[in-house]
Fold:
Amino acid sequence: MLILSTFLISGCSSVRQLDVFKTEVERQPLNLPAPLTPKLEEIKWTIITSENADEVFAKLKAGGVDPVLFGLTDEGYEALAKNFAQIRAYMLQQDEIIKSYKEYYESTDKKSKNK
Amino acid sequence: MFSSLKIGLLIVLLAGAGGGFMYVKTLKADLATSEANNQKLEQSVEDQKAVITQMKADFEAQANIKATLQKQHDTLKQEFANLDKKFNKINGKGEVRDIGTLANERPDSVERIINKGTSEGNRCNEIAMGSPLTEKEKNATKKSEINSECPSIANPKYVPY
Structure:
């Protein structure tokens, strides 16, 4: 009787076996928008020598511009031009690296999705 | 006595049959396990093949990316060398160009040239920052039409000559 009761009670148990399963959730792509491309302002160089200095300043005054110039020597100008070229080259290379990373990892994701 | 022998034999027979049955049952179970193992191994081989294929594709993609970056690096290096050459060009007399002397002699001409160069350089920076090319830039093929500061990015159709 005791054994029968035990079987009956255990047969009515409401605790079920727990099923645990995992579902892979894909990481959301970052997809940052590209920054707006600025329109760069025009820069006007003025060459001033010991001979044309008076003429240059007179022109500035006549044009309603403050008669003052921020100067560079020829070597300074050359260095500035080269610095800008180097910055530009660096930007281009960084841009290419970012594009390559995006293409490499996003195309891999596509492949794994297709599997 | 005789019936005891019969019972004994029956027990031996039953035990033999039971043992045989258990042996076959175990054999079947082993076979099923072996088949399942084989399937798993086959799947594992397929998975490994897929991994190897993916790795090969990745190596190839990496090599292509590195080659593209190297090519871009070489092009930019060449353009930088061209810029350096503009400032330090050797003339027909074998003298190195001095922009300072030139500017002192012909300030208006040099002013015009450096303003053009600066304007082109600005445009190069805009392109480097993602500005789209204009139709004129896209279709430029002659030296007089190109952006001499950065033809590699500004004028895709231009072939240096």
Remarks:
- The helical segments of chain A are 2-11, 53-62, 74-114.
- DSSP finds three helices and no strands in chain A.
